[in-house]
Design goal:
single chain, about 180 residues, alpha/beta, two-stranded parallel ribbon, 8 helices, globular
């Protein structure tokens, strides 16, 4: 190839380590369409429907893969529940880990704290995001998460939502700890 385009520095560095000349590798970073992810007021009807009125809401919107670390987040919820009785966790999406996560919620007795919505239409995502006070991205460290930048934190930040993410390579490129979010 005359030129290789990577979506992040992690992938660029991986290509350089494979022997591709630095002048042949460029980065065009991930981005989101800002007109699709605007800050918006809380959707009062959806909040009432989900029982989130007056609650502090942690949220994750995306696919439920093992590397997303949602099992680790659920493991922390009993302690968080004691410290913050009005805290709720809103999980929007689905995927291979969905049944295991639901079983974990049941085993931990968190059915009144964790809300699974299932997958929602793309046009409805922003309404669910409007309910979230803090987006959480507890990704596990592995080759994929160290090299690749995810889109979901960018979408959250575009909506002016606070972001808390695990300190893995892909997140480190997107989130400046203490400035644009917390790692």
């Amino acid at each position: 190839a005359d030129q290789v385009i990577a979506i992040c520095e992690g992938l660029r560095n991986d290509m350089l380590a494979r022997g591709i000349a630095a002048d042949k590798v460029s980065v065009v970073p991930n981005g989101v369409h800002l007109q699709e992810f605007l800050p918006q007021p809380r959707d009062a009807a959806l909040s009432a429907k989900l029982g989130l009125d007056g609650m502090q809401v942690l949220g994750f919107i995306g696919s439920f893969y093992h590397y997303e670390g949602l099992d680790d987040l659920l493991a922390a919820m009993p302690a968080l529940r004691v410290a913050m009785p009005r805290l709720r966790l809103l999980l929007v999406g689905g995927g291979p880990m969905e049944q295991a996560l639901k079983a974990q919620v049941q085993a931990l007795g968190l059915e009144d704290v964790v809300i699974f919505t299932g997958r929602v239409a793309h046009a409805e995502v922003n309404a669910y995001a409007s309910l979230v006070d803090l987006f959480v991205f507890p990704r596990k460290s592995m080759r994929l998460t160290e090299l690749v930048t995810p889109l979901k934190p960018l979408e959250s930040m575009a909506m002016a939502k606070p972001v808390l993410a695990s300190d893995v390579g892909g997140h480190q490129e997107l989130i400046h700890d203490g400035d644009t979010g917390l790692l």
